[in-house]
Amino acid sequence: MFDYKLLAALAAVVEQNGFERAAQLLGLSQSAVSQRIKLLEARVGQPVLVRAVPPRPTEVGRRLLNHVQQVRLLERDVQGQVPGLAEGGGAERLRISINADSLATWWADAVASFCAEHRLLLEHVVEDQDVGLKRMRVGEVAACVCATERPVAGARSVALGAMRYRAVASPAFIARHFPEGAGATELARAPAIVFGPDDSLQHRYLAGLGVEGSFNYHLCPSSEGFLRLTSSGLGWGMVPELQVRELLDDGRVRELVPGRPVDVPMYWHHWHNGGPLLGELTRQLCRVAERVLVPRTD
């Protein structure tokens, strides 16, 4: 039989990236949290954490975390059906891994009214769209928005559509670096802006123009900062059409090679046993995504 106090300690250590913050969250001492982890490991007969900075779940730890996420959602649904069970308890947070560009564009309109209606609290874990699913795989989140179609074991993947990206730069940057036009060779030589080490959009764009290999780039791990730096002339970059449309319309940025967007498919992943709440949220996201994202081309 599961001891959910022990499982809650495991979840807190992983989600809070350490024993100290986990202890604060649970209202316990660090020693008490450590003892609960040791007791859990004694009961399952193997380690549930890799003692690193931050601590990481082992394979069995990931399975237990996935179970905790699903139990939390099911408990919340039962509390909604039997209100007396929720007396004295706080709202449960739904932890979601999401890419920064979705968070900066369509996501807020998709979830704001839903969260208000269902009294739902969200905790967003920001990851690049190409690697966001790893958070779900290790049991840190209950759902994920990312570019990966194949779900993890025990989860479901739903296609939302695609985010369309355009290669843009400021007029001053274009005049300085591309006076004769933004050809493939010129683009590879001019400084680009890349979101982070896992961001491959610029690489994909250049490969589509026949350019392989390395290129010069700035790093900016902020969606809003990325757009600001691009429009200020620091470099050229791949920006979501949803985010840059107004700047394109008023001429503050220009598309480098018109008619050459990059579409990134977006998928919503959630646990099969997530209960009615996740099912309703999934339907809400699909309705909004159908309106604001572009159809997938694959």
UniProtKB/TrEMBL annotation:
The protein, known as: LysR family transcriptional regulator, chromosome initiation inhibitor
Species per Swiss-Prot/TrEMBL record: Pseudomonas kuykendallii
NCBIfam families given in the database record: argP, PRK03635.1, PRK13348.1
Family: Belongs to the LysR transcriptional regulatory family.
Xref: Gene3D superfamilies: 3.40.190.290, Winged helix-like DNA-binding domain superfamily/Winged helix DNA-binding domain
Pfam families found in the cross-reference section: HTH_1, LysR_substrate
Superkingdom of the organism of origin: Bacteria
Example of a GO MF term: DNA-binding transcription factor activity
Domain HTH lysR-type: 2-58
Record keywords: DNA-binding, Transcription, Transcription regulation
Phylogenetic placement of the source organism: Bacteria, Pseudomonadati, Pseudomonadota, Gammaproteobacteria, Pseudomonadales
